[in-house]
Amino acid sequence: MKQVSSGTAYLLWCLCFFGICGGQRFYTGHIGSGLIYLLTVGFFGIGQLIDLALIPGMVDKRNVYLRGLHGGTPSVNQSVTLNIGEIPQLQQLQAAQLPTASSISPMQKLLKAAKEHGGQLSIAQAAMHTELSPEQVKELLQEATRAGYAEVNNDPNTGAIRYHFDV
Predict the structure, then answer these.
(1) Which of 147, 148, 144 is nearest to 130 (CA)?
(2) 50 close to 58: Cβ distance less than 8 angstroms
(3) 57-95 tens-digit pLDDT
(4) Phi and psi at residue 153, in whole multiples of 5°?
(5) What angle do CA 53, 42, 61 make, to 5 degrees?
(6) CA pair distance 157, 138, nearest whole angstrom
(7) Residue 101 CB: number of other CB atoms within 10 A?
(8) Using CB atoms within 10 A of its CB, is residue 66 exposed (0-12), middle (13-18) or buried (19+)?
(9) 10 Å Cβ neighbour count for 28?
(10) Rounded distance between C-alpha atoms, residue 86 and residue 133, angstroms
C-alpha cells in the first residue's frame, strides 16, 4: 500500500515557481481544488501560500483514507478524545433523566424511609436512611412537619419522639 509523503507534496508545491500550481493538491487527492489551482495560478498565489501550512494535514488525511481503502491497519495507535462535558444539550438530557440514588434529595430519602417503616420514623431511623448528621436530620424533620408531611407524637410505651408520615 503506497502512502503519500509530506516531502513529495512540498516538492510538488515548488512547481509553482515554474507556473504549475496545485500539484500538491492532486497528489493528496484533492482533484477539484487541484484543477482550480492549476487554472487560477494557485488561486492567485494566495492558495499556494496557505497550502504551505495545510500540506501536513492533507497528507495525513490522504494516508488515513488510503489505509481505510486498502483495509490496512494503522502502524500507530490512534485515538480520539471527545470532551462532551460542556455541551448544553447533554446537560439538559442529564437533567431530564430519572434521579439516581445519589441524586435523590434528603427529603425524598426521608419520605421513602417513612413509607418503608409504615409511615413512622424516629430521629435515629431518619438519620440512618438520609445519611445526614443529627442536626441536619432534625432540621429536615422540622421542615417535613412545617410542610405538612409529618406530625410529631410521643410513643405511648417509651415516650420517644416519633414522626408520623401520611405515605
Answers:
(1) 144
(2) no
(3) 999 999 999 998 876 555 555 666 666 666 666 666 666
(4) -140, 165
(5) 45
(6) 22
(7) 6
(8) middle
(9) 26
(10) 34
**Nearest 5°: phi and psi at 92?**
-65, -40
Tell me how far apart the alpha carbons of residues 141 and 124 are, in angstroms, rounded to a whole number: 11
Residue whose entry in the numeric block shows the C-alpha cell 500538491: 24
Number of C-beta neighbours around residue 132 at 10 A: 17
Distance (Å, whole) CA 101 – CA 15: 67
Confidence of residue 44 (pLDDT cuts 50, 70, 90): very high
How far apart (Å, rounded) are the C-alpha atoms in residues 28 and 35?
13
Instruction: State pLDDT tens for residues 93-148.
Output: 666 665 565 678 888 888 888 888 888 888 888 888 888 888 888 888 888 888 88
DSSP 99-163: P-GGGS-HHHHHHHHHHHTTTEE-HHHHHHHHT--HHHHHHHHHHHHHTTSEEEEE-TTT--EEE
User: Nearest 10 degrees: CA dihedral of 40, 51, 29, 6?
Assistant: 140
